[in-house]
């Protein structure tokens, strides 16, 4: 992938040599390849510029050992578009190592032994990608990134504990990957001036969403999954006005209060795989843009029919694998038209006769693997459902005319229920007829 943008590729193979002060590239084998030819040379040099041809844009890949990048060791190369220094045992980058690289787009420094990034290390670069993943970085000094434009920066798989203020100085940054580190703290406004649109902080040690730290006016996507966040507070997302995707999967949340997400622009909200036992009635109030809501795999016991008031019909409500035992009256009144409701894997035994009132159209509705032992003949009157899944429950029979009961459903899944002997044939005949019937309701609702 590192060679896609290149017209000329150069592979640099480094071999161990005797120590010589400030010689970055020792006994370097340079193999360069282009559309028109290639060549191989062996050099020892303190500057890559002396060892690569000018002319066509090129990529350089270095293999071997490069313990230190000295000042101006990679500088004044007008045609260098990609540089890969991955797995070369790099321990230190001197400030000023990268200077005057006008067409550089990709800089890969992954899988090395860097422990610290010093001030001015990447000053004045204008690049698409810098990859510093899989090092041993613990410290980021102020102005490590100064006067620089980066589309994508990766600092993942390091040992960073704190992200201090001042690391970015006059920086334009599109996306930052900082997952699987030891990060516990982000200083207030440390990322506020970077123009970030995407931030991945998965698999860290964060315990809260501090509005002062998460002050990012242009951020649209935030991944905080697999952290240690225990509490959500009203106002946590107040400084994220453009946020549309928030991932809080697999944290330690127990409650979702009112005032965290209200009136936000969030379209995709993931709260699954937590320990949530309580969601306030108005926790999702006036989320006018919400499309996908996950709160499956939690400890919820009571369905609140006031959830999602003031919304404009979300597409997916995923609430499976909780502890719900009952579906109350008008359970889905605030979102009458949607693509999917998933309540599988709960402990639902009781369904109110008016549970589906005000629900109009759903493409997929899953109630599989619950404890439902009866089904009312008029529960689905006026509701159009493409597929309703009642498999894996405790139904022994469904009284009444099944063709009439499920007349507004294209598919009815009834397998893996303990049907009475006298009812089993009725169910079998119905499902056979239903499979052959014309299908008209498998659509995305308007």
List keywords for this structure.
leucine-rich repeat, elongated, disordered N terminus, repeat, LRR_dom_sf, 31 strands, 19-stranded mixed beta sheet, 446 residues, Dev_Immune_Receptor, 2 helices
Helix content: under 10%
State mean pLDDT (0 to 100 scale). Answer: 90
What is the assembly state of the chains in this entry? single chain
Distance between the termini: 41 Å
SS strand fraction: 25-35%
Unreliable segments of 5+ consecutive residues: 1-20
Q: Give the biggest sheet.
A: 19 strands, mixed
Structural class: mainly beta
Rg, Å, rounded: 29 Å
Number of helices: 2
Number of strands: 31
Could you say which overall geometry the principal axes of the C-alpha atoms support? elongated
Describe the structure.
This is Leucine-rich repeat-containing protein 15. Residues 1-20 form the signal peptide. The chain is mainly β and 446 residues long. Helices cover 4% and strands 29% of the residues. The chain has two helices and 31 strands. The chain has helices at residues 402-405, 421-436, and strands at 8-14, 25-34, 37-45, 58-63, 68-69, 74-75, 80-84, 92-93, 98-99, 106-108, 116-117, 126-131, 139-140, 145-154, 162-163, 168-177, 185-186, 198-200, 221-223, 245-247, 255-256, 268-270, 278-279, 292-294, 316-318, 326-327, 337-342, 350-351, 361-366, 384-389, 409-413. The strands form seven sheets. The protein has a 19-stranded mixed β-sheet. Strand 2 and strand 3 form a beta hairpin. The longest helix has 16 residues, at 421-436.
């Amino acid at each position: 992938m590192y060679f896609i943008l290149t017209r000329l590729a150069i592979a640099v193979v480094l071999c161990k040599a005797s120590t010589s002060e400030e010689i970055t590239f020792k006994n370097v084998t340079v193999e360069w390849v282009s559309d028109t030819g290639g060549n191989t040379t062996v050099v020892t040099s303190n500057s890559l510029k002396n060892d690569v041809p000018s002319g066509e844009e090129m990529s350089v890949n270095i293999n071997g050992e490069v313990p230190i990048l000295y000042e101006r060791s990679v500088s004044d190369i007008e045609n260098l578009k990609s540089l890969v220094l991955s797995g070369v045992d790099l321990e230190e980058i001197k400030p000023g190592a990268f200077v005057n690289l006008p067409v550089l787009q990709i800089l890969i420094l992954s899988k090395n032994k860097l422990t610290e990034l010093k001030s001015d290390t990447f000053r004045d670069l204008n690049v698409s990608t810098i990859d510093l993943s899989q090092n041993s970085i613990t410290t980021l000094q102020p102005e490590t990134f100064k006067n620089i434009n980066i589309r994508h920066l990766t600092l993942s798989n390091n040992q960073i504990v704190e992200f201090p203020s001042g690391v970015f100085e006059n920086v334009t940054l599109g996306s930052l990957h900082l997952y699987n580190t030891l990060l516990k703290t982000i200083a207030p406004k440390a990322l506020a001036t970077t123009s970030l649109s995407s931030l991945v902080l998965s698999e860290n040690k964060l315990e809260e969403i501090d509005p002062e730290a998460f002050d990012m006016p242009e951020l649209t996507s935030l991944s905080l999954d697999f952290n240690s966040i225990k509490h959500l507070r009203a106002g946590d997302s107040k400084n994220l006005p453009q946020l549309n995707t928030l991932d809080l999967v697999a944290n330690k949340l127990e409650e979702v209060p009112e005032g965290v997400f209200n009136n936000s622009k969030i379209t995709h909200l993931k709260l699954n795989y937590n320990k949530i036992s309580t969601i306030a009635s108005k926790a999702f109030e006036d989320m006018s843009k919400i499309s996908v809501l996950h709160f499956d795999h939690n400890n919820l016991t009571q369905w609140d029919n006031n959830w999602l008031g003031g919304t404009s019909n979300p597409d997916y409500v995923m609430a499976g694998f909780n502890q719900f035992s009952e579906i109350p009256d008008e359970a889905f009144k605030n979102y009458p038209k949607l693509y999917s409701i998933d309540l599988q894997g709960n402990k639902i035994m009781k369904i109110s006769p008016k549970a589906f009132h005000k629900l109009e159209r759903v493409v997929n509705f899953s109630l599989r693997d619950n404890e439902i032992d009866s089904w009312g003949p008029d529960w689905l009157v006026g509701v159009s459902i493409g597929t309703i899944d009642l498999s894996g429950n405790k139904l022994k029979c469904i009284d009444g005319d099944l063709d009439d009961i499920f007349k507004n459903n294209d598919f009815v899944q009834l397998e893996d229920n303990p049907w009475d002997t006298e009812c089993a044939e009725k169910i079998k005949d119905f499902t056979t007829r239903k499979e052959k019937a014309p299908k008209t309701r498998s659509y995305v609702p308007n």
